[in-house]
Amino acid sequence: MSRLSASSVRGKQAAKRKRHIAKRHRIDFSDIPELSDEQLRAMRRVGRPPLGEYARHLIAIRVDPKVLAEVKKEAKRRDIGYQTLINDILAKHAQSMV
Q1: So where are the chain's domains?
Q2: What is the pLDDT of residues 58-72, one digit of tens each?
């Protein structure tokens, strides 16, 4: 059962994307040779490296706009990313609870 309703905004956007993809020409991959085991072993992950011992988890939270603005302002002052600052704040608070 689909979580997106055709009447929802996300549902309408998803339906548009699906129609758009169907209109595209299919890409012919038949002329691309398969990679050897050696080539596959030499490949490395592309993207953000994990910070610390473990990879971080992507979550979504709702934060008051004023709180987010203050965190972003402080992160800019410290010259770090605001999500890194939020993680640091939560880590310190979690440690104080133990």
Answers
A1: 57-98
A2: 899 999 999 999 999
